[in-house]
């Protein structure tokens, strides 16, 4: 389809904005090859002429139809770009009070910075045994898929939790571990996530720092391995890898503690 067929009257586009990052506008006049401007009208009624480079027109991003706004999977959108992703997440978070959205097999989470009642035992049981995509996006759905693939194929599975400072990575990892402990019917009296997170004061004492966004930001990455027995019940966990910001390492010494284990002092 030619660009002139997409950028026609009444279609809507996204325009960069300093205050709102992106603003929606409606096309008032059909775009024709060779045009150096695009006549637009914003939602507040103001009009503007959007300048285009005639040699290589940088046309604004097209906006998705309203029927697609709020989809629980970003891959279902007709146009997948930055403003479309941000707007869809905003609609789901602000209007629908939903923090989770899929992007294929990736789960996108928006930190609400408050406690939500969507992680109880009843919710865990609801997601147990379900296929990913059968129910609303949730961290439990991702954990169930990993657990099911491990049991079905007898192969190790990995869940990568990433995000900027304050995004909620530690909390998300804790909910995933809680799910594993519940569905595997672990006989331990102490929740596995509590045991794993008990090491946090040590790792955070070395690896945390104050940033412009977070007074206690984790400036390190770690790989936590959860072990299961042949009945797929949790039998333990350990931290295999600990990655620290290079700028935080000023010197190093290796000592042997009374147990004969090498300890790296930073």
Automatic annotation (TrEMBL):
Alphabetical UniProt keywords: Actin-binding, ATP-binding, Motor protein, Myosin, Nucleotide-binding
Any one GO molecular-function label of the UniProt entry: microfilament motor activity
Positions annotated to bind ATP: 163-170
GO biological process, one term: actin filament organization
Residue span(s) of domain Myosin motor: 69-266
SUPFAM superfamilies assigned: P-loop containing nucleoside triphosphate hydrolases
PROSITE patterns xrefs: MYOSIN_MOTOR, SH3_LIKE
Myosin N-terminal SH3-like domain mapped to chain residues: 8-60
Gene Ontology, cellular component aspect: cytoplasm; membrane; myosin complex
Domain of life, source organism: Eukaryota
Similarity remark: Belongs to the TRAFAC class myosin-kinesin ATPase superfamily. Myosin family.
Alphabetical list of PANTHER family matching this protein: MYOSIN, UNCONVENTIONAL MYOSIN-VC
Protein name as annotated: Myosin VC
Native source species: Oncorhynchus kisutch (Coho salmon)
Gene it is expressed from: MYO5C
């Amino acid at each position: 389809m030619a660009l002139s067929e997409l950028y026609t009257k009444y279609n809507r586009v996204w325009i960069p904005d300093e205050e709102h990052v992106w603003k929606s506008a409606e096309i008032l006049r059909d775009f024709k090859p060779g045009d150096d401007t695009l006549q637009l009208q914003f939602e507040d009624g103001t009009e503007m002429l959007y300048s285009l480079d005639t040699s290589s027109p940088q046309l604004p991003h097209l906006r998705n139809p309203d029927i697609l706004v709020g989809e629980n999977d970003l891959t279902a959108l007709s146009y997948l770009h930055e403003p479309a992703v941000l707007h869809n997440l905003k609609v789901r978070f602000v209007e629908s009070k939903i923090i989770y959205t899929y992007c294929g097999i990736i789960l996108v989470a928006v930190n609400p910075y408050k406690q939500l009642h969507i992680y109880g035992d009843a919710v865990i049981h609801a997601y147990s045994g379900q296929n990913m995509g059968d129910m609303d996006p949730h961290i439990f759905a991702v954990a169930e898929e990993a657990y099911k693939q491990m049991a079905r194929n007898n192969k190790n599975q990995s869940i990568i939790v990433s995000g900027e400072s304050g995004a909620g990575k530690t909390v998300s990892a804790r909910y995933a571990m809680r799910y594993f402990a519940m569905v595997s019917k672990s006989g331990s009296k102490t929740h596995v996530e509590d045991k794993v997170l008990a090491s946090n004061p040590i790792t955070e004492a070395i690896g945390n720092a104050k940033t412009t966004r977070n007074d206690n930001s984790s400036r390190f990455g770690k790989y936590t391995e959860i072990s299961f027995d042949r009945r797929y019940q949790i039998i333990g966990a350990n931290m295999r890898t600990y990655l620290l910001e290079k700028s935080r390492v000023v010197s190093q010494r290796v000592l042997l503690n009374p147990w004969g284990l090498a300890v790296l002092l930073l």
